[in-house]
DUF1566 domain-containing protein (Thiorhodococcus mannitoliphagus), 390 residues
Amino acid sequence: MGTVSYDWAAVRVVEAGSYPVVDTDQKTCYDNLGSIPCPGPGEPFYGQDATYPNVETSYTDNGDGTITDNITGLMWVKARGSKVTWDDAVAGASVDRTGGYEDWRMPSIKELYSLFLHSGVNGADYMSTTGFVPFIDTDYFDFKYGSGVGGERVIDCQDWSGTEYVSTTQHDQPTVFGINFADGRSKGYKKFLPPTWTEKNVLYVRYVRGNSEYGKNNFQNNNDGTISDLATGLMWSEYDSSEGLNWEQALAWVQAKNAENYLGYSDWRLPNIKELHSIVDYTRSPEKTSSAAINTDYFKCSTITNEAGQEDYPYFWSGTVLVDGPSREGAYIPFGRAMAYLDNVWQDVHGAGSQKSDVMIGDPANFPEGRGPQGDAVRIYNYVRLVRDI
């Protein structure tokens, strides 16, 4: 019987209820320090993002200020616009008439995340765009870095989503999830700015229309330790690794599970960051629902004790690597609080369901106050949830 192949780039119609996970566009393989030839089965670092092909991006510029995503069925405003407050971003959707359409809306964080391309690169200096490559397709979407002048870094050019965090961050501040297409991260952004928490934060916004079902999971419990998402065509392990692993160990753990035909399958993989993002449940958080940010009707999630001594839920590795200046970091998602040591206290600064990156080797004890300008927690030993194609 011959092999059937599909030209995914030619896909034009998305059925109602579908949630296609578009590829990350990561084509390079990495070890803990830099790029390497992509390993084969049984070799160290086998099974990372670039190992597996996925549905490639496919856009159409409609010539009227709009861009159609031919895979997801979403239509986007092409223009970058200006920075606005959260309130003005929300209000602006109903009066936007780009392309002659009257049904623009704020994108959910999952809709906005569909545009993320992890072929982007961070430069070595956040005050200069030298070495930077945007994490969005600039052949289709207008994009603008921060000025790099005064207190504005080149990465200070984030986008609001329409998804508010169900909890609060950093001294009980109302928070909205957004994406930074300059530095390859997704976080909760405060509606107001320190130190007074009265000045309104301003970020960019890009409106969307079409496929209102995008981002809605359709889980099915297969009653064999696996959970299928009929919206994405992905099957997940009901249980996670139950232990923290560094990135190389996480990849090796997946290979070991395949060798034992875990749950009856031998084609499990470490999910890429967009696949992992697809199962975040943004209606849940440790503070709001006393659970991980995942649908607990279907998934079991290990508990941990976080840096503040609270019962919490782990960070989970993806197979995707962030190129951050001279370093290489594994991309992860906190399904519990996204902790940072800020203002001399450990607290949830970025929100459960954010997407960040961590160094892949070393001793977490060497970072007692986190790292980076916000003191982000460094764990290195994160958890794994397996995925495969249905």
In short: The chain has two domains: 40-53+217-389, 59-209. The longest strand covers residues 159-169. Residues 247-259 form the longest helix (13 residues). Residues 1-16 have pLDDT under 50 and may be disordered.
